[in-house]
Amino acid sequence: MKYNIALGIVCLSLLSLLVSCDKDDPISPSEPTTPSTTEEKLDAALESVISEMEMPGFSLAIVKDGTLSFQQSFGFANLEQEIPYSNQTTQAIGSISKTFIGAAVVKAIESGYFTLDTEINDLLPFEINNPKAPGTNIKVKDLVTHTSGLLDNRDIYDAAYYIVPGENINTPGAQLMINLLDVEQRSGTPLEAFLKAYYVPGGMLYSNDNFASAQAGQVYNYSNIASSLAAYIVEVATGQAFDAYVKDQVFTPLGMDHTSYISGDQSATLYFDKSTPLPIYSNDSYPDGFVHTSNEDMTKYLLEMMRGATGNNPVLFSETTYDLLFTPLLADGIVPNVIGKNHGIFWTRNDASISHDGSDPGLNTVLQFFEDGETGFFLLTNMDSSTDENEEQFVKAFLKIIEAISDFISAN
Question: Nearest to residue 140, comparing CAs of 121, 107, 117, 110?
Fold first, then answer.
């Protein structure tokens, strides 16, 4: 689940646009009307993304003035069968899934299982030691801020993807994944076995390249596998499988009834391009990117996170726990190699905005809101950006969507 630098830059552009809007200064009748000042014009602008761009389908939710003001879907969940993308269509959301790890971590802290300063080797059934930084003690805090010194070994992480059994592997999309990423069709490896093989000497996936030459807490390195290690720590500490814990503590209380860590009956087909559908796939490091959800369910999550950020009667956690979730944690002198000034617990902080995005073969997602609880949006797409050409096409479509969102939010 890569971090999309181009996408981050565009999100910051949205931040600048929205912060510059003065909601108390109504638009003068003499001013020219922007392309999407009403819901109808917003619809038209978003429909043009489907007709003019390479995006197969997408769902969008917009919160304006603290209220859900727009929730629509466009294009197709499946082009071949002409199945429309709907607000109930589900798909994986990539690295936005890490925010659910964050939710599980703070719930476990709230319940007294550990703290951010607990050393991970005090919780794990096996020890993890960085061979390039002997004596360093990795804490939970280091995992949730990507400063643990634990790295993604790209070759190993790519091989952790797998095409689920029963999928046709003779299609062009399946062959693309097999040939480019060395993906196999197989069952998944249990999370504990995968992490132990990756981090413990003698493991089949162990390598010095899995570690940075830095003490824990000193250098920012975005890591998918270390994020899933944080999920596994929740699993060990609570005695409950991670996916079941998140369901009990997050999905069910919010009424996210069609959200899980596996592909569902209403899943969108993911596309490398409009003529190349991809097979259903997953990853052994599943917590870091494989929450499968819909626009309808994620809107509930977005609104809850906005309530939590403002202390406006949140459902999941206490106000103190929400402060823990969103408060920037990185020490002075640590410069993130991603867009954004700081990190809460898996949330990127930049001035007044709180966000995360996600990207995987055949999908791109964005979740962003402002700490004042007034404005936010969620975008779910089955469009790829895994190559330079596809990323260029996606950014063009995304810029058009962002412009429409900005116009809609800015209008009175």
Answer: 117
Task: Count how many residues are written for the chain.
Answer: 412
The C-alpha atoms of residue 117 and residue 140 are separated, in whole angstroms, by 6
Query: Which of 84, 52, 43, 103 has the alpha carbon at shortest distance from 259?
Result: 103
Residues 6+ apart with CB under 8 A from 120: 128, 138, 139, 140, 143, 229, 233
Q: Pick the closest to residue 86 from 61, 109, 111 (CA basis).
A: 61
Sign for the pseudo-dihedral over CA of 256, 259, 260, 264: positive
**Cα 364 versus chain centre, distance:** 9
Residue located via tokens 């919160």: 63
Return the amino acid letter for 324.
L
CA distance 102 to 234: 10
What is the biggest distance separating any 2 CA atoms in the chain, rounded to whole angstroms? 72
Query: Would you state the structure tokens that stand for residue 212, as one six-digit string?
Result: 């940075």
Q: What is residue 412's three-state secondary structure?
A: coil
**CA distance linking residue 412 with residue 332, whole number of Å:** 40
- What is the spatial distance between Cα 345 and Cα 362, in angstroms, rounded to a whole number? 27
Per-residue pLDDT of the chain in tens (412 residues, 90 and over written 9): 554 444 554 454 454 444 444 333 322 333 344 444 588 899 999 999 999 999 999 999 999 999 999 999 999 999 999 999 999 999 999 999 999 999 999 999 999 999 999 999 999 999 999 999 998 999 999 999 999 999 999 999 999 999 999 999 999 999 999 998 889 999 999 999 999 999 999 999 999 999 999 999 999 999 999 999 999 999 999 999 999 999 999 999 999 999 999 998 889 999 999 999 999 999 999 999 999 999 999 999 999 999 999 999 999 999 999 999 999 888 766 766 555 557 899 999 887 899 999 999 999 999 999 999 999 999 999 999 999 999 999 999 999 999 999 999 988 6
Give just the sign of the alpha carbon dihedral 229, 234, 237, 238: negative
Helix (H) and strand (E) counts in the chain: 12, 15
> Alpha-carbon distance 19 to 223, whole Å?
31
What is the DSSP pairing of strand 363-370 with strand 353-360?
A: antiparallel
Q: Which two tokens stand for residue 17?
A: 């646009």
| Residue found under tokens 């309808």 | 296
The whole-angstrom separation of Cα 168 and Cα 172 is 10
